[in-house]
Amino acid sequence: DIVELSLRSSISDDCLHLVYQPEVDMRSGVIVAVEALLRWEHPLLGLLMPESFIHVAESTNLATELGTWVIRSAFRQYAQWWSEIAGLDVVLRVNVSPGQLVGADFVDSIARELGEYGIDGGNVCLEITENAVVSDVDRTRRALRGLAGLGVQVAIDDFGSGYSSLAQLKQLQFDVLKIDREFIRDLGDSPADLAIVKSIVTLAKSFDLILVAEGVETEMAARTLLDLGCYRAQGFLLHRPLPADMVRDLLITNR
Ligand code: G
Ligand code: G
Ligand code: MN
Ligand code: NA
């Protein structure tokens, strides 16, 4: 497959980079986390978003290699911010693909990279799309336990969009729940979305999870979330995914 071949050679080149989208506590406006998001600058096709190539990595043996590149790059960037910004107090969120999480060496590799970059596990949160988690509950549970041992948090991403959201909440110990942007986009206009988000807020409280809304694009959505008690949010209304140096400037004045 041509995409696979192309991706394989791009992982070692300078074709990949990360952008970072801030997550804000809407009560204070302070940035509480940043999510690393992968971009591929293809020599012929231009800038590619993860949707167009992540599945290729996942269906081949490239998931681990790509995932390792992402983790090392994000950790290196975080370590740099840490050295540049006194009193830095934001969590680094990194997306992890299913194959990566249940890989034999995954938890050990995270421990190794934390050590290499001098990062406290408590400053890192790995995001797992709920669709991805289902395949192997036992191995996923073992991985989450190992990560908890390192102090690393785990988020269930795109919550509500998969077919076993509630089963996974029951079976697996997450730290953070990110509401899928599908339910946020029309929040304020849609009684159905309002009912769903309300019940997710209750769920998150019951399970003692940190709650984050994704895809906040309008003042209306933001206000509704605040009213419901969901304070943390990510979305174009607040910040777009940004290059690392722009995030640094934001983090410097983040107080
Ligand atoms: O950046 P963008 O909004 O286009 O991301 C689209 C999807 O790709 C999101 O669901 C996100 O979780 C996923 N994604 C972004 N970066 C990474 C990454 O580094 N690794 C994995 N596995 N998924 C990613
Ligand atoms: O699934 P995940 O949360 O990892 O996806 C993150 C993706 O969501 C990023 O690629 C980012 O570009 C996209 N995104 C972030 N904020 C918004 C938003 O407000 N609206 C929409 N439509 N997409 C967003
Ligand atoms: Mn994510
Ligand atoms: Na998501």
Automatic annotation (TrEMBL):
- Where the record annotates domain EAL, the positions are 1-255
Which superkingdom heads the taxonomic lineage of this protein's source?
Answer: Bacteria
Name of protein: Bifunctional diguanylate cyclase/phosphodiesterase
Q: Taxonomically, what lineage is the organism?
A: Bacteria, Bacillati, Actinomycetota, Actinomycetes, Mycobacteriales
- Span of the entire protein shown here: 351 to 605 of 611
